[in-house]
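Notes from hallway chat w/ T.B., transcribed later so I don't forget. T.B. wanted the structure written out for a chain they're using in a teaching module, and asked if we could keep both sequence and structure tokens in one place. Agreed to drop them here.
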Amino acid sequence: QMRLVESGGGAVQAGGSLSLSCAASGGIFARYAMAWFRQAPGKEREFVSAISWVSYTYYVDSVKGRFTISRDNAKNTLSLRMNSLKPEDTAVYYCAQGLPYSNDLRPETFGSWGQGTQVTVSS
């Protein structure tokens, strides 16, 4: 299991943008599928987006066209660019490690969470 540290959260107004980063260490980052999840207060953790080891991507419908997931294997970093943010995007965002050499982006294949970073979008 890699160590995952998220950063980049903050408070923005609706319509604004944020970029999240997840720094991975203790493993060969390039081998793994990676994902972003989020958890709003009082709600269950929600799958947001994922990227396979060869950069196939997946987005849930609620963020399609607004969020972009990417990875930089040279820097062992996963990113999530979030545009046109809405109040309902408010949550703690977590990155998670998936399977090695995998294009399987089902939510249940991810675990090994980071500590999370707070995103707050005001109306």
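Follow-up for T.B.: The CA atoms of residues 19 and 81 lie 4 Å apart. Might be a good example for the class.
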